[in-house]
Amino acid sequence: MKSVGIKKLYYSISEVSKITDLEQYVLRYWESEFEQLKPAKNRAGNRIYTNKDIKFILYIKQLLREERYTIEGAKQVLKSWTPEEESGEQLSLLPTDSAVHQPSAAQPALIQSEKFKNDMKEIKSFLEELLQKLN
Questions:
Q1: Residue 3 lies in a domain
Q2: Reduced DSSP (H G I as helix, E B as strand, rest coil) percent helix, strand, coil of the chain, to 5
Q3: Which of 20, 33, 34, 68 has the smallest set of CB atoms within 10 Å of its CB?
Q4: Tens digits of per-residue pLDDT, 61-97?
Q5: 59 part of a folded domain
Q6: What span, in angstroms and rounded, lies between the C-alpha atoms of 41 and 1?
Q7: CA 7 vs CA 13, 18, 99: distances in Å
Q8: Is the CB of residue 97 less than 8 Å from the CB of residue 106?
């Protein structure tokens, strides 16, 4: 039985495409549109994605496909949000400014709701199961 705690450090674009259910060309396009999405490249020049990158991609996908933001609208939402630096385990759902407890007009109401938190927990569980199957 494989350990659940062991995860890959890096994923290829084809693996990320399968995990996120997005075409590779979409991932490459989003790199050009969203400045926060910058996967590293290996010596051969191939993209290598981290778990943090994958979670960020899933967040972008949610904004564009579920919440129906335009790319420009999603960029505005993402300006006030940053990935969690320390663990890389999850995207921080807290604004970068000090007004943590007061919602701003730029923050969609869904992000502050329990539904959003539950959706993120489901995505996390799904990814953990998928990673376990891939390893």
A1: no
A2: 50, 10, 40
A3: 68
A4: 999 999 999 999 999 999 876 655 433 444 433 333 3
A5: yes
A6: 32
A7: 16, 16, 34
A8: no
CATH for 51? 1.10.1660
Query: Which residues, at least 6 apart from 107, have a Cβ–Cβ distance to it below 8 Å?
Result: 77, 80, 95
Q: What are the DSSP E strand ranges found in 3-102?
A: 40-41, 47-48, 81-83, 91-95
Identify the domain containing residue 115 by its residue range. Answer: 13-94+103-134
Q: Which residues does residue 83 pair with via DSSP β-bridges, in sequence order?
A: 91
| Residue 2 in domain | no
Q: How far apart are the first and last CA of the chain?
A: 11
Q: For strand 47-48 and strand 40-41, is the pairing parallel, antiparallel, or unpaired?
A: antiparallel
What pLDDT sits at residue 124?
82
Question: Would 5 be classed as within a structural domain?
Answer: no
Residue 101's Cβ-count burial label (10 Å; 0-12, 13-18, 19+) is exposed
CA distance 114 to 128: 21
CB contact set of 75 (below 8 Å; sequence gap of 6+): 33, 34
- The answer to whether the predicted template modeling score (pTM) of the entire model surpasses 0.90 is no
